[in-house]
Amino acid sequence: MQQDVQQVSVRRAEGSVGGVSLFAAEVVARLVARDAVGDRELRESLIQRLMEAVADGGTAAFEELKPELKRARVSPAMLADVYIPEVARRLGEAWEADCVSFAQVTMGAARLQAILREIGTAWSADAGGDTGGPTLLFVLPSGEQHTLGAMVLAGRLRRGGLSVCLRIAPDARHLAALVSSRRFDAALISLASQDRLAVCQELVTTLKLVSEGKLPVVVGGAVLEFGGDGLKVPGADVVTNDIDHALRVVGIVRPGVTVL
Predict the structure, then answer these.
(1) Whose CA, among 48, 87, 99, 174, lies 20 to 30 Å from 200?
(2) What is the arithmetic mean of pLDDT over 90-109?
């Protein structure tokens, strides 16, 4: 659910069951942050080192890479917004080309998420609950796999001055209890596959019922990039991948950094 998401056409692996939808969801349309790069280009050597670190080396390899990232003045935000999505994109391409196994890609994605968690500890506007500013509930429906992209977007929103409560695969009861106990200015639901549309619809219905229709709900995600342009979700206030447009529609003004 990102504005200016890099457009890609995901090929279905020949003879596969379900094609590449699982990993396509994981990298969430292979986003690249133009505003984070500015006039500085990605350093190929750093991309390759990060690829090696997540593919084979794990935590120790990333620790060894940190001094080089610091010398290159790669900030945590740039690492999160640009380098990590680029490495995820390349992992996906390597899998589609049968250069790496699905197990290697899955492990690589998990390691990228671990790096995101490490560098994003300071981006925690929602750590104490209601901070008095805009607060978003960000939901990935049950069965979705794109946690990496969700973490990238949540980090961007937090750096933009918003409090974000990320929930992965919550059931209707948990979601109802959460909305009843906390104040949210809007809910975002990220959907990668039309196969999960029924689950998404249930979440929208739950959010509207428990809030008595007062909580604005935004639906977006990779499903819109992969042929879901005309997607309709009854009850949702807006269906879009333009996060700035979505926030404006629901009446939220971000006080800080521009998010894609």
Answers:
(1) 87
(2) 82
